[in-house]
Amino acid sequence: MRFRRAMLLGIVIGGLLVPGSALATPGSGWLDLQGVRTGPGSREVVVSLPVGGASGEIGMESGKEQPTWGPASFDVDDGGRYWIVDGVNGRLVVVAPDGAFLRDVSLREPVVGALDVEVVRGHAFVLDLVAQPPAVREVDEEGDVAGSWEIPEEYAALGATGLRVDDGPSGVSISVQIAGAWEVPLTRGGKGVAGRRIPVQVQENHANIPAQAKADFATGVAGTEARFGLEKDWSDWRHATLTTYEYGRAVRRTVLESDAELGTLRFVGRDDAGNTYVYVEQMLDQGTRIEAYVKALDRTGAPVGIARVPVEEFATFPERFVRVTDAGELLVLVPMRDRVEIRSLELAEDTSAGLPSHENGGTAVAPEELSSSRGGLVSRVLGFVGGLLEPEEAHAIWSPLDANDRAWDYLYDSWYCSGANYSRSCGDYLPRYVKSSGKSYKAVPYCWGGFDTASQFNQDMKNGLDAGDTNTTGGKRWCTSGVDCSGFVSRCWGLGSKQSTRTLPGFAYSVSKSKMRLGDAYIRPGVHTMMFRYFTSGGAQLFEATKGHAYDRVVTHAWTTAELGSYGAYRYRNW
Question: 27-364 belongs to which CATH class?
Answer without folding.
Answer: mainly beta
